[in-house]
Design goal:
Three copies of one chain form a homotrimer. Chain A is of the alpha/beta class. Chain A has two domains: 11-135 and 302-328, Rossmann fold, CATH 3.40.50; 137-298, Rossmann fold (3-Layer(aba) Sandwich), CATH 3.40.50. Chain A has ten helices and eleven strands. Chain A has helices spanning 16-33, 56-68, 90-97, 113-120, 136-151, 172-181, 201-209, 243-252, 257-263, 297-315; strands at residues 37-39, 46-51, 72-76, 103-108, 125-130, 161-165, 188-192, 213-217, 229-232, 269-271, 326-328. In chain A, the strands form three sheets. In chain A, strands 8-7-6-9-10 form a five-stranded parallel sheet, with helices on one face. In chain A, strands 3-2-4-5 form a four-stranded parallel sheet, with helices on both faces. In chain A, helix 7 links the parallel strand 7 and strand 8 (213-217). Chain A is globular, with a radius of gyration of 20 Å. The two termini of chain A are 29 Å apart. Chain A binds chain C through residues 35, 38-40, 54-57, 59-61, 63-64, 67-68, 70, 72-73, 77-78, 274-280, 287, 298, 301-302, 305, 327, 329-337, and chain C through 4-5, 41-46, 48, 72, 74, 76-77, 80-83, 86-89, 91-93, 95-102, 122-124, 315-318, 321, 325. Chains A, B, C: It is an enzyme of class 2 (transferase). Chains A, B, C: Pfam families: OTCace, OTCace_N. Chains A, B, C: Residues 158-314 form the Aspartate/ornithine carbamoyltransferase Asp/Orn-binding domain. Chains A, B, C: Belongs to the aspartate/ornithine carbamoyltransferase superfamily. ATCase family. Chains A, B, C: Residues 7-147 form the Aspartate/ornithine carbamoyltransferase carbamoyl-P binding domain.
């Protein structure tokens, strides 16, 4: 695809070569993310960071990514009693707001809203999450993390063995990731969930129709011993009749250091879309894993910054100017990506 | 008036020459608004964008205008449980906040609040709307839009024929615009509303006392056939005993493409302060007008950015330095004002 | 202490030489605070201004301080329905958010939360207030103001006589200030409050153990006649059974111009942490003091900006580069600190 001026609305837009292009640009962003140098390439540009649904981390990640390229951020952090409340159409809102910025990132609780907004916007729109529909930058950062973790093991995504664990029915993240994986070869996906929370058939079919091997099970321990990645997700209490029943289920799909040591291959990477619930004793990813060097959950969010920088650089067509606008970092940087 | 360091609180401050000065500076801002170049003239300056009442578009417009001049924006986007809630006076708040920025834009639900705040502020204050009282930048952007639209027809504001339609009683926008029009010659204003929502007498008298011709009517179709501008406003449901009665009224003051074609002169410009309500079948400005090139409603909000840039440049006295601090735009710009 | 890369969590961290270092750097920030010049030393750096509790003025003060050094600010202005609500631990939140910025300022309603957050953060964290526990920059700006006011009288902090008035039991501000005063010599602190709102014993003991003279009283007039500073605080209505009883108490600890003229030495400095309540007739600091040149309450908030700039410059180790990155101010500056 031609990224210049494009909207980024759905992972369905991407061919494998597009994904690889994004990842190659993300790699080039790493020195800026790590604060080895700063770039002013987007000096004077404005991001409209329009979050019509609260989300601190995704909002801040998009905004920081734009700042890291030298641009300014104007934003809204929740629904407010805005014009949308007064009955304004999304298309009108888009025409107005797209006059105020050079690119827009939008999150909105309603599925399809971001695409509708984009259809009337005069500047490129990046989907920051539209309800149960899409959150394409999350899927990209997940796959980018997989690629980087595997690269350290001299492996590529082709041939990946990944176990997805937990609520695979409602988890937007695993749906999008499974679609992206369909672009690669010799993938083995193990879908481990309670039957009630199984991956919807359409995603399973798409995987199989593109040649992936799919294993479906409700047994955790038997299925995590020969995989490269375990991708854990939250089992949400509200899906179950009672908290007790939810805890019972969660307990069966829970990962901790003892289980990891006993059942996983030594270098198995642990991922999670975050946030992970730390209130329950039956939380899906125990904090005793925090010292495990293969726990990649915070590398995921760090990588998200690089992927979002890459998308901004591609859509605004400044990839080849980033380095020529670079400066040295003057301050003490504690930051390590 | 001398703009340097001045508060911009009310359209009553302006003589015709002041309005023309603002518009001349707004014209000079257009290349920056259109992203043909960027300027860093306000590098290091801080706008305190203090919205003590939620308003996404006006807040973002002020913030973007300041960013477009190279400045930084600190802001508040709603009442919060701020010091004002703890009983702090507006004057104390002003003394504190004016220590944190170089210029302040303030919106507050209470009429007169911004002037009171300004009286204690140590930096210039721009009124971003104080309840039912004033919203001077909206009136200026409306008149600036009228001037630009007429200029394309080789016309000036003098001699303007404008129909104001809808809720003329509570509409802050049409009150302020009518006051600004009093500064011009040979104006004909046609006030078209239900009798219950008629323009208050004081505004009618001011227009007449400055030589404007005023026509008052509750008939739409007979009064839009010889005007340069139709300025439509929202008839708010809550003014009427029932929704049905409101729809009945709204239907009589509604504009769509069929009515436009049959009753308006070919080049009649259509304006609206936005947002327009798109939920009701009886909405005041039908979306079938969206392909009409004379629909100026989104040019209004685009022009708002230029007018706000002009006010910042005038108040901070950098008009003559804007161009000398200009740089080329590095990124792909989809933006067209 | 070594400030480079350090967390600033508590005034307990500071020795006298540390406080003096902060104040010396704050002095060097004054030309930038006064807009005599601007500096771009932190160009490209990002502050994560994470206010998980609403506080307009402290949030804007931190953000403006960072902008004044040339950096960018990403922020959150309230609790939102954020990940913390979904049960994420503070340590997880810290690991994620510290990947998005170079330094974090955090406010949170829960005592101890900021230190817990800092323990997992990969970048320096400044405590912007953690519930009833600490608000170290407020204590520093108070003491910095005292130092500057006394310096105008050719005095140093050693030998200070200060009356603290009002709610000394719950007032976080006076607790922290009294601890800082323990670092100085020959201090006389007069603690004036209703017995129910007396300073907790631990703070009194710390003062005495470090050689300070402490006077405890519930009489205002007899105790403000030989002091350098009167530090007034708000007596909160909610501490008392009824509003009438609260007003009765407040009236006894109230300062106005008549009392000042009759009971204070001519140059006595008046301080208050703000906001002051201006709704009640029995407000603690009457507005008739606003013309009194010794009223330092707005100099306190102005000084807060300088102290916060100093802390950022120290923690990010750019103190010696601030001046070499300076530029002239292009705009008309109405600002006087």
């Amino acid at each position: 695809m031609n990224f210049t001026g494009a909207h980024i609305l759905s992972i369905e837009q991407f061919q494998r070569e597009d994904v690889e292009r994004i990842f190659a640009v993300a790699d080039r962003m790493a020195p800026y993310g790590r604060r080895q140098r700063v770039t002013r390439v987007l000096e004077g540009a404005i991001l409209g960071n329009m979050f019509f649904e609260a989300s601190t981390r995704t909002r801040v990640s998009f905004g920081s990514a734009f700042n890291l390229l030298g641009g300014e951020v104007r934003e809204t952090a929740g629904f407010e009693s805005s014009a949308l409340v007064k009955g304004e159409s999304l298309r009108d809102t888009a025409r107005v707001l797209s006059g105020f910025s050079d690119v827009i990132c939008m999150r909105h609780p309603q599925a399809g809203s971001v695409a509708e907004f984009a259809s009337a916007s005069r500047v490129p729109v990046l989907n920051g999450g539209d309800g149960s529909n899409e959150h394409p930058t999350q899927a990209l950062l997940d796959l980018y993390t997989i690629a980087k973790e595997l690269a350290q093991r001299q492996r590529s995504i082709d041939g990946l063995r990944i176990a997805m664990i937990g609520d695979l029915r409602y988890g937007r993240t695993v749906h999008s990731l499974s679609r992206l994986l369909s672009l690669y070869k010799n993938i083995h996906v193990l879908l481990i969930s309670p039957p009630e929370l199984a991956m919807p058939e359409q995603y399973v079919e798409q995987l199989r129709s593109t040649g992936a091997q799919v294993t479906i099970s409700d047994q955790l321990l038997a299925n995590i011993n020969h995989v490269d990645i375990v991708y854990s997700t939250r089992i949400q209490e509200e899906r179950f009749p009672s908290r007790e029943e939810a805890d019972l289920y969660r307990g069966k799909f829970r990962l901790n250091q003892a289980i990891y040591t006993q059942h996983c291959e030594p270098n198995t990477v642990i991922m999670h879309p975050l946030p992970r619930d730390s209130r329950s004793a039956a939380n899906e990813l125990d904090i005793d894993l925090d010292d495990n060097p293969n726990l990649a959950i915070f590398r995921q969010t760090d990588n998200g910054l690089l992927v979002r920088m890459a998308l901004f650089a591609l859509v605004l067509d400044v990839v080849d100017q980033v380095d020529s606008c670079a400066q040295a970092v003057r301050w003490h940087s504690a930051r390590q990506l």
